[in-house]
Amino acid sequence: MDVTIRESAVAGTTQAPPSKSYTHRAILAAGYAEGATVHDPLVSADTKATMRAVTAYGGTVDRSDESAIAVEGFDGRPETPDDVIDCANSGTTMRLVTATAALQDDLTVLTGDDSLRSRPQGPLLDAIGQLGGRADSTRANGQAPLVVGGGVDGGTVAIPGDVSSQYITALLMAGAVTDTGIDVELTTELKSSPYVDITLEVLSDFGVTAEQTDDGYTVAGGQSYGPEDGTYHVPGDFSSMSYLLAMGALAGDDAVAVTSAFPSAQGDSAIVDVLDRMGATLDWDQQNGEITVERSALSGIEVGVEDTPDLLPTIATLGAAADGVTRITDAEHVRYKETDRVSAMAEELTKMGAEVEETQDELVVYGEDTDLHGATVDGRADHRIIMSLAVAGLVADGETTVTGAEHVDVSFPNFFDVLSGLGAAVDR
């Protein structure tokens, strides 16, 4: 699907979509439990992949209630799936449920689409091997398809932290139901550490204790998952919220108000600080969970995305519409997402008239030398690239057509409905 956005203003109130990160973890945690009801989940292409995995391991997922998912879990003892687990485009699913596969004695095969089969899984496979499990890449390149099993019962692993924090999340979630638990020793600095903070928060809400140590993280074995009263509520998603706040700061002639914006462990809440530093007129009522923002004269800043890789596309768009220079640093790991998001934003914003400079670890956007104009841009089958380019289209002269726009279904299925509802000129 191609979507065309014309230069236009936005205004009004909209609700932030539920957090994808929390939804993934909550659904799998409910699978590790006897069962639980997950309220206000994000139902998207990615989270459906995690639901399928829970079912493959012997659980059941009931989505008959539009506002909640009822999960009957496998109670810490996953079955060997009858078939291959297809994780589609969801890297979070693949990494989290690869560790689940290591708990069962036989073998599980995990795969995904072309993009997912190009993403690195080697450090997690090596960690499972250190625990005495079997974890192979069928092509011997550290990428899916994967074959995993061996009935691990805990131990100590050494793993790099600068490729993906999801490896640590996967090991902690699985480690709680092993006999002896898992100690994770980091061999490099941890990137995206707020995502592990999210994991620790969800584990705690499900009655599981895990903690940070001097060398990494640890989780005791022999624990049982089970949230209080058997229910869990998913908070709003700051990664998705970033596009709503950015469109308000760039095109909100009247204020854009975003609800369900309650404080949480999400690192991407840093978008509020980024906008504030750039000069946005913004107010966050944390008690009531509402952020209001309006069109503002923005100035470029330097911002590191070591812990907030998903914000790079949004910040790049803001930089293209700001005065001065926006320098996005600590960005190499952003190249290993659904697509190389550093190059993708550099190339697509250039089509729209932006002056950019790309290095391995940085993206520099020269807003002072940029006059954005409409163009046909490639969404790269990446939800975050698509939404960021759509926001850029609001302030580009003429019409901007984003190709492959259906992939917003990964994290924000009704994004273009919301955009239109706020007054943007959107043609599908």
UniProtKB/TrEMBL annotation:
Enzyme class: transferase
Active-site residue numbers: 310 (proton acceptor)
Domain Enolpyruvate transferase: 8-419
A biological process from GO: aromatic amino acid family biosynthetic process
Record-level GO cellular component terms: cytoplasm
Main location: cytoplasm
GO-annotated molecular function: 3-phosphoshikimate 1-carboxyvinyltransferase activity
UniProt xrefs under Pfam families: EPSP_synthase
Keywords: Amino-acid biosynthesis, Aromatic amino acid biosynthesis, Cytoplasm, Transferase
Catalytic reaction equation(s): 3-phosphoshikimate + phosphoenolpyruvate = 5-O-(1-carboxyvinyl)-3-phosphoshikimate + phosphate
Gene3D superfamilies: Enolpyruvate transferase domain (3.65.10.10)
Domain of life: Archaea
Binding annotation for 3-phosphoshikimate: 20-21, 25, 164-166, 192, 310, 337
Keyword RNA-binding: no
Family recorded in the similarity comment: Belongs to the EPSP synthase family.
Quaternary structure and interacting proteins, as annotated: Monomer.
Full protein name: 3-phosphoshikimate 1-carboxyvinyltransferase
Native source organism of the sequence: Haloarcula pellucida
